[in-house]
Amino acid sequence: MKTSWDSPTSAPASRTVLWVSAHPEPDSLNGRLRRDGIAALHRQGHTVVESDLYAMGWDPVIRPENLDRRGRVSPTRVSAAGRRAQLEDAQPDDVAAEQLKLRRADAVIVQFPLWWYGMPAILKGWFDRVFVSGFAFGTDPHTGRRLRFEQGPFRGARALTVITLGDRPASIGPRGKSGELHELLFGLLHGTFAYTGMEPLVPWALPSADFTDADSHARARCSLRDRLVRLFDEEPLRYREQFTGDYTDQWELQPEVLPGQTGLSVHLR
């Protein structure tokens, strides 16, 4: 995954996929789907790099000693400390290793069980510690461009969310009690993936996961495999660009864009 200030290079001969997973039990349904999915990607000839956060013992909590390996941290300026560590190559080793995986990835798959309508804390902490200013967003040090959305550093990388959840299928539909799936995951799809320049794909979800039997698991495996076959071909969710006129300087939609309409879906083109 090339940042916007990297020198252009020729297209890689093969694709590299980073699979980030967050489930504490390797023999769970999530664990089986992860292994099935990675095997399917290998059969397509892709290289898969894993970040199994529970198996890694990932520390999700931002603390002074894991913000800057030189220990130069002001507790009142966490964001600034993280940016300084990034720009001065002083990130802790665990963060630097994850950032290297991201830099090399043509696609990122983020897999997790939906707990309380959000991602597990260990995964949220992965984003908090790895996606710091100077790496996933900020300002291009060479051009001064603001690195977000269509100018984000991870332009061209695909991002697929793979989730299991307890809701019934209809409950994550247009009139479902839990809301449309891409709206339910708006913070991740728009606020993280699209914000950093990635191309978020329609999430893959397995509802009623607690009631999965052998037959439904087989269907889920086939469904996920089919999505992975199209990983680099399917149309992404097209969120509106920030710097091309749809938004005011206060980041609100211009009055002439979908007048009278509100809600999260207005940010999709």
UniProtKB/TrEMBL annotation:
Start and end residues of each stretch annotated as Disordered: 69-90
> What sequence ranges are listed for the domain Flavodoxin-like fold?
16-220
- Indicate whether Transmembrane helix appears among the record's keywords: no
EC number(s) recorded for this UniProt protein: 1.6.5.2
Pfam families, per the entry? Flavodoxin_2
Q: Which UniProt keywords apply?
A: Oxidoreductase
- Coiled-coil regions, chain positions: none
> One MF term from GO for this chain?
NAD(P)H dehydrogenase (quinone) activity
Enumerate the Gene3D superfamilies for this protein.
3.40.50.360
Q: Which GO terms describe its cellular component?
A: cytosol
Is DNA repair given among the entry's keywords?
A: no
- Family of this protein: Belongs to the NAD(P)H dehydrogenase (quinone) family.
Please give the name of this protein: NAD(P)H dehydrogenase (Quinone)
Native organism is Nesterenkonia xinjiangensis
